[in-house]
Write a structure and sequence with these properties.
The chain is an alpha/beta fold and 471 residues long. It folds into two domains: 4-169 and 337-469, 3-Layer(bba) Sandwich (FAD/NAD(P)-binding domain), CATH 3.50.50.60; 172-332, Elongation Factor Tu (Ef-tu), domain 3 (Beta Barrel). Helices cover 35% and strands 15% of the residues. A six-stranded antiparallel β-sheet has the order 10-11-12-13-9-14. It has a five-stranded parallel β-sheet with strand order 6-2-1-7-16, sandwiched between helices. Strand 12 and strand 13 (299-302) form a beta hairpin. The longest helix has 25 residues, at 371-395. The structure holds flavin-adenine dinucleotide (FAD). Residues 8-14, 31-34, 39, 41-42, 51-53, 121-123, 141-147, 150, 240, 337, 363-365, 370-371, 374 line the site of flavin-adenine dinucleotide.
């Protein structure tokens, strides 16, 4: 058994994981392919490079990412500490000087006697995941732009159909913010079967369908046309050159579909066939369907609404849909290059690979989305890799299969914390898994309902911080 832990990828997650391991007195070999090879989005030679916006989002307690950062501060995250130290004025947001941030993280890791930084592309020569996992513990944190040669190995390890290269996600809204005077439950077939029933009986029955997977938002002609007219005019995100080539191959953004003609959406994802609006007793002109997105049923995604619209435009245009006028968007739709695995099937709540317990994943490749979320997963994977290492040393007989797993030697974060909720989200069964960022919708509800949104978020914040402080 190796007397070190291997971390592959010196980005946000890998750097945090390496720090967490080293500070627990365990040696780390951190492999980073730069400067020999750069992904299409990386250009700086340092570790922990910020590839796009220099913002780590809001610091407010009533913001989900604000909560996540505060949890990470309490748990001594190197990267959040460094972000605080290299911050530049940005109102309530934590924005960093990107050069200083990466330089400072690199300096910290370089001077740490427990960390050896090796600038080589993993997957080349004799550097292979399976081989290293036979001899010791490894964390794979190679990010959304994992090099091709390693992506191939990861595909072989996980099963190729469990590895994705593009993210085409629809927006997600909090259920509590949907206007339930307009929305109605049920799926298309349910409605088809019911269409010959007496309308009053049917109305009564449909009220009882509140456990159904779909919520439906009916539109009349005027509402539909207003929506489509705004959708086709809305501003979209400029894609990177490397993304333009392939991104639309399998999945057309809703705004592109809408531009094909005023009725295209009504004959596509907004098809009203088989539905009757309980308010009118008639088939609506169009229907937007929302599908349950988490086990708790607190968040719903807009079916078929994968989009490239700017976030502000998504809020403006999708709020025109009747029932979503006051919607809280947990996550906006995105379409971009993103290498990620089907974590619900492959990982547990400690980011440990279910099929091979010497292997952990961390960062965006696990389906957490965003800088701070990647750091959070690096911290959890790092801590748990240490526990596995110590456990193995104690037994002096490491065996790399799940039967030998010792649950007591895992650090599972409470799902009432944002760190724990993210870990739970990515590891919980979900046949339509899409990457997820920090948001209050993935936390379990408060024991007592709080109607005021700000007050609810603040209580969720306090509840989470109290748990983290006790760790
Ligand atoms: C173009 C783009 C823009 C983004 N913009 C934002 C944004 O504005 N805000 C936000 O919150 N999130 C953004 N993200 C999402 C995400 O938060 C970041 O990508 C984040 O850096 C992910 O952290 P990570 O540690 O998982 O991966 P990375 O930070 O990308 O780190 C992975 C590291 O692994 C290295 N590597 C890859 N393959 C190998 C290999 N075979 N051997 C050794 N090393 C290897 C890479 O060089 C890299 O240094 C963006 C993602 C992309 C792709």
């Amino acid at each position: 058994m190796n007397d070190f832990i291997t971390v592959i990828g010196g980005g946000l997650a890998g750097s945090e994981a390496a720090y967490q391991i080293a500070k627990r007195g365990i040696k780390v070999k951190l492999y980073e392919m730069k400067p020999h090879k750069f992904s299409p989005a990386h250009s700086n030679e340092n570790l922990a490079e910020i590839v796009c916006s220099n913002s780590f989002k809001s610091n407010l307690p009533t913001n989900a990412c604000g909560l996540l950062k505060e949890e990470l501060r309490i748990l001594d995250s190197l990267l959040i500490k460094t972000a605080d130290q290299t911050s530049i004025p940005a109102g309530q947001a934590l924005a960093v000087d990107r050069e200083q941030f990466s330089q400072k993280v690199t300096d910290e890791l370089q001077k740490n006697p427990n960390i050896e930084i090796i600038n080589k592309e993993f997957g080349t020569d004799d550097l292979h995941i399976k081989k290293i996992a036979e001899q010791g513990i490894v964390i794979i944190a190679t990010g959304p732009l994992t090099s091709d040669i390693l992506a191939k190995e990861i595909g072989e390890l996980t099963g190729n159909k469990e590895l994705h290269f593009y993210d085409a996600a629809a927006p997600i809204v909090e259920k509590d913010s949907i206007d339930m005077n307009i929305a109605f439950w049920g799926d298309r077939y349910e409605q088809e079967r019911a269409k010959n029933e007496d309308i009053d009986e049917w109305r009564e029955r449909i009220q009882g369908l509140n456990e159904a997977d779909y919520l439906n938002l009916p539109m009349n002609k005027e509402e539909y046309e207003d929506f489509v007219n705004e959708l086709v005019k809305a501003e979209v995100v400029e894609l990177h050159e490397f993304e333009k080539r392939e991104i639309f191959e399998g999945c057309m953004p809703i705004e592109v579909m809408a531009k094909r003609g005023i009725d295209t959406l009504r004959f596509g994802p907004l098809k009203p066939v088989g539905f009757t609006d309980p308010r009118t007793g008639y088939r609506p002109y169009a229907v937007v369907q929302l599908r349950q997105d988490n086990k708790e049923g607190t968040i719903y995604n807009l079916v078929g609404f994968q989009t490239n619209l700017k976030f502000g435009e998504q809020k403006r245009v999708f709020s025109l849909i009747p029932g979503l006028q006051n919607a809280d968007f947990t996550k906006y739709g995105v379409m971009h290059r993103n290498t990620y695995i089907n974590s619900p099937k492959l990982l547990d709540e400690t980011y440990n690979f279910r099929n091979e317990s010497n292997i952990f994943f961390a960062g965006q490749i696990t389906g957490v989305e965003g800088y701070v979320e990647s750091i959070s997963s690096g911290l959890v994977a790092g801590i748990n890799a240490c526990l596995r290492y110590e456990n193995a040393i104690n037994k002096s007989n490491i065996k790399s299969n799940t039967e030998n797993e010792d649950i007591e030697n895992k650090k599972i974060f409470d799902d009432k914390t944002m760190i724990g909720a993210l870990a739970k989200y990515i590891s919980t069964e979900n046949d339509k898994f899409q990457p997820m960022n920090a948001n209050f919708g993935i936390l379990p509800n408060l024991a007592e309902k709080e109607k005021d949104k700000k007050a609810r978020y603040y209580k969720l914040y306090e509840r989470a911080i109290e748990i983290i402080k006790k760790l």
